[in-house]
Amino acid sequence: MTGITDEYSGYMTALNTDVKGDFSDIYPNTRMVLENYVDYTWVFPKSPHRANIGIGWAQRDLPTDYMEAFKQACERNGGPIPSREQTNVAIIPQGPSLTPSRVYVPELNVVRVSDAAGIATRFSGKGISQAVHSAYIMADHAADGRLAEYPATLHETMRPEYLLAHVVRGVLESHRP
Fold it and tell me: Taking the alpha carbons of 32, 34, 38, 40 in that order, is the dihedral positive or negative?
């Protein structure tokens, strides 16, 4: 867009992959599991026999071996164990991160949505639902010619979740839940 930014307030590291297995007990729902108070795993079934599984961590208390931590989480949660070759690694900016001037660039008529907007919360990760939420807001504002209002609306609708994430993760990260 306008170059690289180092303005994100923090980040989460995540590993994920698509796997085959028996997910009929939770399909079409999802499963999120908080692990060790500061990381989380997920299962997003795409069908009764295929799912995206993953694990993510906030900045603190990162494991020394990410892939081994992922495999152990899969074993604990009874899921298939992916190979390293199947697994994607991502750095996800956590929110709230960017000032409105970085979320909307009027001279280019461009907005950031999803992870690029730095809106995933450190409580649950929840990048997918935030991505959909931000895309709907952006589309609504673009259709009405109100892109300049997008950053304020995004922040206003995300504020309660950021507050909850800040409080809950603060307690959990103190290791005194």
Answer: negative
Would you state the structure tokens that stand for residue 61, as one six-digit string? 């208390």
**C-beta of residue 126 within 8 angstroms of C-beta of residue 84:** no
Q: For strand 110-111 and strand 39-47, is the pairing parallel, antiparallel, or unpaired? A: unpaired
Q: pLDDT per residue over 106-164, tens digit each?
A: 888 888 888 777 777 766 656 677 888 889 999 999 999 999 999 999 889 888 887 88
Contact between 39 and 59 under an 8 Å Cβ cutoff? The reply is no
Say if residues 133 and 157 touch (Cβ distance below 8 Å).
yes
Preceding peptide of 28 cis, ω within 30°: yes
The one-letter code for the residue type at 15 is L
How far apart are alpha carbons 70 and 72 in whole angstroms? Answer: 5
Q: Give the whole-angstrom CA distance, residue 60 versus residue 11.
A: 10
